Amino acid sequence: MKKYPKETAVGIFVLIGILVIVYMSVKLGDVHMFSEDHYHVTASFNDVSGLRVKAPVEMMGVPIGYVDDIQLDLKTQKAVLVLSLENRIELTDDAIASVKTSGLIGDKYVKITPGGVGDPIEAGGVIIETESAIDIEDLISKYVFGKV
Prior knowledge:
InterPro entries: ABC_MlaD (IPR030970), Mce/MlaD (IPR003399), MlaD_Phospholipid_Transporter (IPR052336)
Domain Mce/MlaD: 38-115
Keywords: Membrane, Transmembrane, Transmembrane helix
Oligomer: single chain
Protein name: Mammalian cell entry related domain protein
Helix content: 10-25%
Shape: elongated
Structural class: alpha/beta
Number of domains: 2
Transmembrane segments: 7-26
């Protein structure tokens, strides 16, 4: 039986440790490297306050993707969300995207209400119908100052 020098054994141990750390970082960090199982669509909103990148996208209460990017379109003065959706999800052009809150003061997420018989939205397409988040502070201030 061949004996390995200490340096070789330590090198192999360190290499295995680094591979385990990289694997766990990718799995626990929900990093989607080299994955072809998602496609992107965009949606424009008047207000996406409180919504974060990596926020879930749900349809009928089931997670179907996540918010990949949030940008500001200076021409239209709207927030543009880039949504990463699972390939198995087929949206039509009459689908509605809305920003919702989990519970009373919970995290924000994007809810997709499926359409009916419209044309399919391809990868890179746009969800036309959107509903912005309801701002609790605005509602309370309108009530308090009598502008309901």
